[in-house]
Amino acid sequence: MTLDARIVRTLGPFRLDIDLTATSGETVAVLGPNGSGKTTLFRCLAGLLPIDGGRIELDGEPLDDPAADVFVRPEHRPVAVVFQDYLLFPNLTALENVAFGLRARGIDKADARSSAASWLQRVGLADHAHHRPRTLSGGQAQRVALARALATEPRLLLLDEPLAALDAGTRGDVRRDLRRHLATFDGVRLLVTHDPVDAYALADRVVILERGEVVQTGTLADIAAHPRSRYVADLIGANLLTGTGSNGTITTSSGGRIVPAKPVDGPTFAVIQPHSIALYSTPPGGSPRNVWPSTVIDVDRQTERVRVRLDGDVPLVAEITPAALDALALKPGDRIWASVKATDIATYPA
Hints:
alpha+beta
């Protein structure tokens, strides 16, 4: 199953003009600053906004093609949406909310309720079938919204900031649940997010939108290594490392050891901002907890800053000043030491 879209849509002074493809079983995250076109893209795919030009095709079936006078209305598209605030009906129970989409497609009440109960069982909420949204936690409401979307057996699933409404304390657990449930969906999956950790955890590929255009696409690691704009450098340029926390240390799959300020246990993301990394031509004195021997892979000198890509047990992208670059005389192939304060390492459950 494949989504193949060429979308052109003008809204006042704003123009969205992009090509987008995604395949079955693939999760694609769409990131971009406010006003970049993420919402317009999703509205066009869902059929809430017709396109001015181009063509939206899902598994060979046209959903929107102005040149051929084809436009499939939202309720007839094999597309489901999980909205940022979930949009659960407050007067309906969790079971009735999940059954709603099925009933809207003409399925009789008994069969719709039976299918809804099965989906609530799959997302671990069978015991909450008769609870109304106001009695559910944020994570539970998100799972009800996901069950409602998947119950209609869509071929394209759109998730709009699916974790944004959650507090930091529950986001990690819900992120893991969401990743597990998405893995069971065989269709095309697209999600909008502002959080690179969500993109790293949930997506196979990232698409960056700016000013209505795709400016970069690829894995998050590829984009972090080669940012093509200030937005990408600021948002995706953070070093995102994965490992397992134990006894005050995070150990990466390559054997690197990271010591955060607060001990963590289990699978963990460690986030290090490039400007927090200090570089030394010789091992730094004292007893810093995070010092890694590295090899300079690339030096990208810009007007006000220099990004230095480092390889080693803990691969990093550091950001230093032009003066520091001149003092260190760095070039690809040089051996160097990178150091980061433990307090400059942010951690999230993986």
